[in-house]
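User: My instructor asked us to take a sequence, write out its structure as tokens, and then describe one feature of it. I'm not sure where to start. Here is the sequence I was given:
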Amino acid sequence: MTSRSPTNTRPEPSVFATVFAQFKIPYDALAQLPAEQQRTLDMVAVGADWISDSVGALLSPVLPLAVPGAAPSGRRNAEQLVEFPWADQSTRAEAAAMAQVHLLVCDVISDSPRGPDAVLRFSGHVADEQGGAWIMFAPAPRPLLLAAELCARQSVLGSLTKTRVLAYRAVPFYEHVLSLEALLRFLPKKRQVALVKDVQVYEHHLERRGADFWHHCQLRAAHNESSGPGQHTQPLGSSLISELFLHALSGPSLPYAHLDGQPPPRPSMDARNFLEGLLRPPKPKVPEPTKPEPTKPVSPHTGDDTTGSGSPVILPIITEPSPPPALAPPAETEPEIRVEPEPLKPLPVNPPPTLWDSLQGRLVIDREVLDTARVALSLARPLLLEGAPGTGKTLLATLLAEAFCGPGNFTLVTADARWTSSDVLGGLKVAPGDSLRYLFQPGSVTRAAQRHHDSMQNSGRPHALIIDEFNRAHQDEAFGRLLTLLDPEYRSRMPLVSEADGAPEAVYLPLDFLLIATMNDADVGRLHEIGAALTRRFVTLPLTVPREERAFLEQTRPQVDKARLNALYAFVGSGQPSEDRAAKRLRAYVTVGTHFMCEALALTGAGLSLDDALKTLTYPHVAGLSRDTLTALHRTAQQVELPHLAAQLQTAGEAAPF
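Assistant: Let's start with the prediction itself. The structure tokens for your sequence are:
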């Protein structure tokens, strides 16, 4: 916990009070050593304040972890080498090779009296990388309690009551940890927080590089009494952090944890109201109306003016041209000043035209297809892009998401045949570790909904979810529970997940949530069928060969000579069905998209002949074609003077079973 502002009167602590490191030499590793080596290591460990646990493993002292100092850019991202605490150099390498390391995390409360009715409270809590509560244990081991008390004293001014470690947990080095350490003015009689002096949220994890372990630390959110909230990767009101912060604001000295099989305590209403007020921007101050000061009437000979009744006319000082001011009302009827609240304006979901122009410069697509996609997404309707491989479905989906949400502000996942409702929405899953335990893991849609909420708070723009290869997942098992929620009418009535699913809170699908799916229609018979109930909830856009494909390739690849492009289209075809069928071209029998053409030109640009490039690219597409079709394509390849491709098609035709 650090002081983040130079105006703060707190001392600058150097270590965290909630997250520590600890090395462990497992008993199994010790048992494999000769008896003499075991005794030597035991003696050295005792001298270095190591202890034995209940199963005979050696545990190092609890190692404090340093808080990163502010860089010139204001960022607080740092890594720190975690030193192996072993004094004997002759056995150090042997002991280090057997050692493992973990994070030792805890929930801490520490108070410092500030008068008869208030205390200065240090409140430290930890969570998993999604901000969820862990299963934790109590009471804490004495070494951890002493280390936490020593570190907490650096974070609170004045005398402390006894520091209480409410719960603790050992976390494997590969897992990520969120730690929140807050300095609060707390009113014990009212059991509520009166002031947040300082709060920071960090993300931690350990990384192994060779024989060394490094502590990685990143500041995710911060707020200071004097400087207010800083600009960090997450706001205090985000779904990642809000539950952890609300717990610290709720007052009772309880851990943010599943303790003894009980769920974590629910945040108080006072805490929710306090957080809402903390995050609400301050209202602009309205100037008080002032009465004009009486002025003596003077003679016109002095250049001043008087009214016929002797009342002065107060002329405003005008520094730049403006319309003549209206006369102020008489002083005895002081004007009433009203500040009308501005009406809420809808978020600008529809991107400006320049974004669409730049999008068309990166992808060739028919204008009517692009217009339909734009309108569907502007209404937050789920969009399904359907087409054969290579028609640009995934590329179009990512470009649409960036046009609406900003660069990189989308989640891209690929559907899988093993998906269930837990993968899409979320559910209880076995957590990694030595013991069998279940934790709630949000699914793809739930995670994207949470990121959407954070994005709207940070930038005012939505966050999009792209599900690639949508029909690879089983419809009923994966998307059955999502069917109703795809209709905006029901999104506020039914949660994606709730406490009944094991989630810490109910999560709803936002009304302006953007969902884009892509579906490969070339493998429909071999993949899962998408039923009418699911298809009806999407705006479906079939993607075929764009009419302007050749013009796009000529514009974006000016180095390609016209003869090579003519030969390519003479065999592959233009994508116009009647024309390609008459000329017996590839696209008359197989749907290949613009990506196929780009790949062929890329291979020829790298030195391969067009004949060999098409032979390589065509091979996967001709499997399953009839003998007559392959014979027709063989003749077309001969006419275009592609001998290697023609020979391959002839061989395939002779081997065709029908």
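For the description part of your assignment, you could build on this observation: Confidence is low (pLDDT under 50) at residues 1-12, 295-349. Try explaining in your own words what that tells you about the chain.
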